[in-house]
Design a protein that fits this description.
- There is one protein chain.
- The relative contact order is 0.19.
- It is built from one helix and six strands, in the order H-E-E-E-E-E-E.
- Strands 1-2-3-4-5-6 form a six-stranded antiparallel sheet, with no helix packed on it.
- With 84 residues, the chain is mainly beta.
Length: 84
């Protein structure tokens, strides 16, 4: 898993999403990025007034079929969030 997700880049053919923005808060109701190597489905929010992000991402690696889809959480200050 580490080798599959470390460094590099992934291109996406499609980026689709549903977002609402109110009072400086971006709610990601659903976003899907799809490409030849991966699909990522995300939701969560980013608050500019609080300078905080809290998002969840379900990652499917299409070319690494032995790896089950996995979750990544990005949470914390916008300029230094953690990635778990």
């Amino acid at each position: 898993l580490g080798a599959s997700t470390a460094g590099g880049t992934t291109s996406f053919d499609t980026v689709e999403g549903a977002y609402t923005i109110n009072a400086g808060i971006v709610n990601i109701d659903r976003m899907q990025m799809d490409g030849p190597a991966a699909t990522i489905v995300s939701n969560g929010n980013a608050s500019l007034p609080r300078w905080f992000i809290d998002t969840q991402h379900l990652v499917t690696l299409k070319q690494a079929q032995k790896i089950q889809p996995f979750n990544v959480t990005i949470k914390g200050p916008l300029d230094n969030p953690t990635n778990t």
